[in-house]
Amino acid sequence: MSAPPLKLLATGAAIAVAALFSLLMLDIAVEGLHGLLATALPKTTTTTADEGGVFAALLSTVSISVLALLTSLPVALGCAWLGVETLARRPRVGTALRRSLDVASATPSIAIGLVGWTLFSNSFGLGFSLLAGALTLSLMIAPLMASAFLAGIDALPAALRAQSLGLGVSRWNTFWRLLLPSCRPAIAAGIVLALGRATAETACLILTSGISTRWPESMGDPGATLAVHVYHLARNVPDGEPRAYSAALLLVVVNALVQVVLARLRLGGPR
Question: Class of 35-264 per CATH?
Answer without folding.
Answer: mainly alpha
